[in-house]
């Protein structure tokens, strides 16, 4: 079982769009897949037509496996399950602070799902806090969508610095370009610059497209309703690239 | 290996249930969403030995020249299938197919066997997910229908599979109840068995290896008749495959079966009158000899790559003209054999031979014909083993090759005796004996094959002399090949000598003495 986090300090960069489509691609490739919606806003649960859990089920997440399993819902696709967002997620940090081993809680509970899933994808809220540190400890790969602008570059480098200063392995960070606009010359320039400075950028690029934007109307992964379009297929290409990288690691 | 959480439930729908009623019933509780609907001509592919079935795999060949393989737990699940795309109409061996995961799966399973259609029909797959009003799927539901091509209205089989969606257990129970209310039938067989059964296919895996078990008191002649009858049946089952030239295994098994018949006649000759033995020997021998040449060619052609790999890179292709010759000869020879086995004369001869044994061979009593089977078995096995170990003791580095070949033939005889009578003795011990023997035979077999191959190539080389145009490079590569085979043969010889000394050592002799005795309790 592997764990991928879709993460960025910045909001609105395409973390959820990537999580949802990668999870779909993974299930279609035959993997038992779990998408964990860690964002209390519940965007990825929404895309799969699963309501956020209404009860403030305080604390369940970081304690018992059975209670966790009970929250899981199947999606409309075989082999793709969702752990929906929960309002109590707003208080993650307070909750975690009160627990022992507060930075490894997520890792522990997720590894108890070893026999159930081949791949777990974490859709993370923006910010750096105790929850994100749990994510960094749990994930085999931290996938970072980066919109090719100068500002995004700075936030990306903030993340690298944070990893360095706090002793996390920088190797697990894999950035990719998100919402890239082919007609925008500034984007072109940024991509060229960033690739030079940061060779760790993945080859697959997710372009800006209205088809992707419309996911909220369809309430489906874009791969499910527009799989033939080339800029939609790049999610599948991205997934294949990720699988190769995860396959190489032991 | 991917995780599998398959817990589908399958139901066969009753014939008189209309599709409309089926959908209406589901709609009483769910909204039914038809996602996908494919309908096409298809065929089910198998080998003569049902190799895929034995590995719980279903292979379907589609209209569009592709093949899908399913593990039986994932039958008709598109995402958990293995595909072979863009095949040609005549592709039937694994090596004919383009590289793919599916090809890698097939290779060890079917080996030299060809895939051929065992069923043709129309396959319709409908996904009918059961949802709530918000468009959330609550139960996955798939309807598989199979039709005969001439009867597109009445399905031969309709199977519904339901699979639960995590967290919607109650809805799943509800769907199960609805299906039960329609008198659908939940088969207790495995998914593949119930599918094949529903369309009238009964897999009967063929194997040339016989299993015999005789009543203790059965007369020796009756036992031998029964051995021969069984092997003739096995031989005859391969005939159609040879006539149609489906794959080379048919002829191979045909010959194995005849070889066992001949072994029974010659090695157990005492149960028949002497003049009958020479008549039978002659008639079965003729059948075998007729096919010698085709088998030789098959073996060479199958090993083409191995031969080429024995030569330096730059010379590999120089052998190709020889293989072209072989392949041309094979075509001619295969046609001849096909016509021969398809002929009335052949059929008459086989019917006659078969009739001689089917109710027990009838002839005057002989010294051995009325003794018990076990007496015959013990006497023959002990005698053959004694002969082998005595000969083995005399083997050293200066022994001529022929002596080693003689031992190989006796080992083969011993092997056949174990096939015939093995079940009369203690199972565990027989297993040990058989393993020893197999290990020895493998070495002797390689040694012999190298000799035969070398001779075959030499003959081919000599015959090139009469050709008007001489291909120097072919001749050179043949020379290279013959000397390589010879070097290998010398090495193998040493291994054989070593193995023979083990086979004839004291503990093995003791083992034979203990194992093959009269009055053993069978286990
Ligand atoms: N490639 C794209 N092309 C066009 N629109 C996109 C693309 N990717 C995402 N969007 C849209 O941009 C918005 C933000 O995307 P998304 O929700 O995936 O980002 P996020 O990083 O998860 O945001 P948040 O930080 O709020 O969780 C959404 O409305 C989404 O539909
Ligand atoms: Mg988001």
Topology:
The complex is a heterodimer of chains A (250) and B (523).
Chain A: E1 2-6, H1 15-28, E2 33-37, H2 43-47, H3 65-71, E3 73-74, E4 80-83, H4 92-97, H5 105-111, E5 119-123, H6 130-138, E6 141-146, H7 150-165, E7 173-180, H8 185-197, E8 205-207, H9 210-213, H10 215-218, H11 222-225, H12 230-248
Parallel strand pairs in A: 1-5, 1-6, 2-4, 2-5, 6-7, 7-8
Antiparallel strand pairs in A: 3-4
Helix pairs in contact in A: 1-12, 5-6
Chain B: E1 9-12, H1 19-27, E2 31-46, H2 51-54, E3 57-62, E4 67-71, E5 81-84, H3 101-110, E6 116-131, E7 137-147, E8 157-164, H4 169-181, H5 191-198, H6 220-237, H7 239-243, H8 248-267, H9 274-290, H10 292-302, H11 304-309, H12 320-342, H13 344-358, H14 373-393, H15 401-421, H16 427-464, H17 472-503, H18 506-515
Antiparallel strand pairs in B: 1-8, 2-3, 2-6, 3-4, 4-5, 6-7, 7-8
Helix pairs in contact in B: 6-8, 6-13, 8-9, 8-15, 10-12, 14-15, 15-16, 16-17
């Amino acid at each position: 079982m592997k764990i991928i986090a879709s993460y960025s300090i910045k909001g609105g960069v395409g973390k959820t769009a990537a999580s949802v489509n990668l999870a779909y691609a993974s299930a279609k490739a035959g993997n038992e897949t779990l998408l964990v919606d860690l964002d209390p806003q519940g965007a990825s649960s929404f895309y799969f037509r699963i309501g956020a859990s209404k009860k403030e089920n305080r604390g369940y997440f970081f304690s018992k496996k059975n209670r966790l399993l009970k929250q899981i819902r199947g999606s409309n696709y075989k082999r793709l399950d969702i752990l929906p967002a929960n309002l109590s997620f707003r208080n993650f940090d307070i909750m975690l602070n009160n627990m022992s081993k507060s930075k490894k809680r997520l890792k522990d509970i997720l590894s108890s799902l070893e026999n159930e899933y081949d791949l777990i994808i974490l859709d993370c809220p923006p910010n750096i806090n105790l929850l994100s540190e749990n994510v960094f400890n749990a994930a085999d790969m931290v996938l970072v969508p980066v919109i090719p602008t100068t500002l995004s570059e700075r936030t990306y480098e903030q993340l690298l610095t944070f990893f360095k200063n706090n002793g996390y392995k920088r190797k697990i960070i894999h950035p990719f370009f998100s919402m890239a606009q082919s007609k925008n010359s500034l984007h072109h320039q940024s991509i060229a610059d960033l690739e030079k400075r940061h060779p760790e950028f993945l080859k697959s690029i997710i372009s800006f497209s209205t088809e992707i934007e419309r996911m909220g109307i369809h309430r489906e992964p874009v791969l499910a309703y527009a799989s033939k379009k080339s800029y939609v297929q790049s999610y599948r290409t991205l997934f294949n690239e990720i699988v190769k990288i995860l396959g190489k690691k032991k | 290996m991917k995780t599998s959480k398959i817990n589908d439930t399958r139901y066969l729908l009753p014939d008189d249930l209309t599709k409309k009623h089926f959908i209406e019933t589901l709609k009483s509780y769910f909204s039914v969403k038809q996602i996908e609907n494919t309908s096409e001509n298809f065929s089910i592919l198998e080998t003569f030995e049902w190799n895929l079935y034995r590995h719980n795999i279903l292979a379907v060949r589609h209209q569009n020249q592709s093949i899908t393989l399913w593990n039986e737990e994932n039958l008709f699940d598109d995402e958990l299938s293995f595909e072979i795309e863009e095949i040609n109409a005549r592709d039937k061996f694994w090596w004919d197919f383009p590289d793919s995961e599916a090809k890698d799966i097939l290779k060890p399973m079917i080996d030299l066997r060809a895939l051929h259609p065992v069923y043709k029909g129309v396959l319709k797959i409908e996904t009918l997910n059961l949802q709530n009003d918000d468009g959330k799927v609550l139960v996955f539901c798939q309807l598989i229908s199979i039709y005969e091509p001439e009867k597109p209205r009445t399905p031969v089989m309709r199977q519904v599979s339901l699979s639960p969606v995590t967290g919607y257990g109650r809805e799943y129970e509800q769907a199960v109840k609805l299906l039960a209310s329609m008198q659908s039938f939940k088969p207790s067989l495995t998914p593949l068995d119930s599918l094949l059964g529903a369309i009238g296919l009964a897999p009967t895996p063929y194997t040339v290896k016989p299993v015999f078990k005789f009543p203790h008191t059965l007369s020796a002649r009756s036992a031998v008749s029964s051995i021969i009858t069984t092997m003739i049946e096995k031989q005859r089952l391969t005939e159609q495959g040879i006539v149609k030239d489906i794959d080379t295994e048919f002829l191979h098994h045909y010959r194995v079966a005849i070889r066992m018949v001949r072994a029974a006649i010659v090695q157990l000759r005492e149960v028949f009158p002497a003049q009958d033995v020479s008549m039978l020997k002659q008639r079965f021998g003729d059948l075998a000899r007729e096919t010698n040449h085709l088998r030789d060619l098959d073996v060479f052609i199958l090993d083409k790559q191995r031969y080429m790999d024995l030569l330096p890179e730059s010379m590999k292709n120089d052998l190709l003209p020889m293989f072209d010759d072989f392949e041309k000869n094979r075509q001619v020879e295969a046609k001849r054999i096909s016509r021969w086995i398809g002929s009335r004369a052949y059929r008459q001869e086989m019917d006659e031979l078969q009739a001689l044994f089917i109710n027990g061979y009838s002839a005057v009593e002989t010294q051995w014909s009325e003794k018990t089977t076990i007496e015959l078995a013990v006497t023959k096995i002990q005698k053959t083993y004694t002969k082998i170990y005595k000969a083995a003791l005399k083997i050293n580095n200066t022994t001529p090759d022929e002596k080693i070949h003689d031992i190989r033939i006796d080992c083969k005889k011993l092997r056949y005796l174990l096939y015939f009578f093995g079940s009369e003795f203690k199972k565990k011990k027989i297993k040990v004996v058989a393993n020893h023997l197999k290990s020895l035979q493998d070495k002797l077999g390689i040694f012999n094959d190298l000799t035969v191959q070398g001779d075959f190539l030499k003959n081919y080389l000599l015959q090139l002399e009469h050709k008007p145009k001489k291909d120097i490079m072919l001749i050179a590569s043949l020379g290279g090949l013959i000397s390589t085979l010879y070097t290998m043969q010398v090495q193998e010889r040493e291994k054989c000598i070593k193995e023979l000394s083990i086979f004839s050592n004291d503990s093995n002799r003791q083992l034979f003495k203990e194992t093959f005795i009269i009055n053993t309790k069978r286990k």
